Amino acid sequence: MSRIGKRKISVPQNVKLIKSEENNFIVVEGPKGKLEKKFSMRIKVRIENGEVIVERCDNSKEARALHGLSRTLISNMITGVTQGFSKTLEIKGVGYRAAKAGNKLTLSLGYAHPVLMFDNDEIKTAVDGDKIIVSGIDKEAVGQYAANIRAKKPPEPYKGKGIRYLGEKVRRKVGKTGKK
């Protein structure tokens, strides 16, 4: 049995969890918002005494693979509607900067044009000097939006310029050596 999948998830008092029996659809509502997700029919989700128990219907390879994943997804949904998630990116390089106006994030990354990105309903960005903070209630959406920002100018190995996650180590390469 999955070590992660067999652990119970405790549901806080301020979180409302609704499960649809016929199509395995789960809705989680909390102080920060509402998340909903459809799970495989090979996974059975029970709500008992303020705890969520995730079980698999059979012992097939697919059900075993989905067991721990489904438990973690439900746990992340509960954490998202109570605390939220955030990722911090930092910009390194001369002339590289970010600016925020309304729901528009403007990145100056050494191209001939500024790169524009727009926040949506579930993702918010904030700029603090050379740092960009991406936050929201859906962990997957926050991670994907942060990856999209990083993909605009990933860190290069010679000078280390570009956009990187906070604390990310970039392996530096030595440049050309001159004639001796």
Sum up the overall morphology in one term: elongated
CATH-assigned homologous superfamily of the largest domain:
Ribosomal protein L6
Q: Report the CATH C-level class of the largest domain.
A: Alpha Beta
Strand order of the largest sheet: 11-12-7-13
Question: How would you explain this protein's 3D organization?
Answer:
The protein is α+β, with helices and mostly antiparallel strands and about 180 residues long. It contains two helices and 13 strands. Strands 11-12-7-13 form a four-stranded antiparallel beta sheet, covered by helices on one side. It has a three-stranded antiparallel beta sheet with strand order 1-6-5. Strands 2-3-4 form a three-stranded antiparallel beta sheet, covered by helices on one side. The longest helix has 22 residues, at about 60-80. It is elongated. The N and C termini lie far apart (about 65 Å). The model has no long low-confidence stretch (mean pLDDT about 90).
Show the helix and strand layout.
Blueprint: E1 9-10, E2 16-20, E3 25-30, E4 33-38, E5 43-48, E6 51-56, H1 61-82, E7 85-92, E8 97-101, E9 104-108, E10 115-118, E11 123-128, E12 131-136, H2 139-151, E13 162-165
